[in-house]
Amino acid sequence: MVASPAGAAGSPSSEDGGASPSTISAASPLASTTMAAAEPFAPPQAALQVLAGENDTSRSEAIASRCSSRGNSGGSDAAASSSGGRTSIAHMLQPQGAQQTSLMVAVRSRPVLVEEQLRGVRKDILRVMEEKMVVILDPDDEKGYLDRQLHRSKERRYTFDHALSKTATNQDVYEHTAKDLIGGVLSGHNGTVFAYGATGSGKTYTMVGEQADPGMMLLSLVDIFDNIRELSADYDFEVTCSYLEVYNELIYDLLVKNSASLELREDPEKGAIAVGLKKIEVKNTDNVMDLLREGNSRRKTEPTEANAVSSRSHAVLEIGVRRSSR
Q1: Are 232 and 222 a contacting pair, CB within 8 Å?
Q2: Binding residue per annotation — 301?
Q3: Range of the domain at 191
Q4: Fewer CB under 10 Å: which end of the chain, C or N?
Q5: Where does ATP bind (predicted)?
Q6: Residue 10 annotated as lining a ligand binding site
């Protein structure tokens, strides 16, 4: 999964395989954040999800960077304090810990599924250590203790900015990744959250989630609308939503029934855009979730060994936030 304040992030990927991207943008006056999930050419047995984030503060305020700004409190609008003893917007939008780097990568493991156990998968060979390291153990059950000690070089160790074990909830993932992007989005910077993993690794679960464990999309939106309410005395906000999928290198609008493929063009100010992509104004998280349900019903899916309704496309949700002073 990728969480990033980036200058030109959010361009649709053309790789084959399931993906679940989402973008959230906000600016002073305009900015955006992108959330996505993509499937790599990696062995599914690893069952890992990678999350990353990047920052680019080189663009002007009007065309703010594509995620939250790492190490930047935003433009002059963001630095203005609200009156009447209210919390200043500069304080509310101050970058947090994860925003001190331009790119953050986290990995999440999941438990062995019941379906996998029925297929004979009995051993969990993945360990998370010290919240930063993932260890892949030697899967050979036939070896004795001494032999395993002599051949420990077959273990593989990988270090990330953050590693989450199979007991982590979507809220845990959000707290360590996407949450720090929200302040940047509201201060006029773009952000991207990108989930990357093999089929069945849990990308869609992490991004969309379920009622008891909502994913990155909903958790980010809740924070965005909560912050908007706190800032509404001094600012007017307009929030828009678009939802597209990339399937066989063609772009389709998931908010339009029987959408024709859309043309991708380069805009001198906005960067890559899908021409004719529908954008809908939303007032709350319920509005966005209704659109997500509508769009997900139109996604291309097919059964795989790992998932009976596996997504065969990359989906990108983009939330745009426009802010103006009262």
Answers
A1: no
A2: no
A3: 2-111+162-325
A4: C
A5: 197-204
A6: no
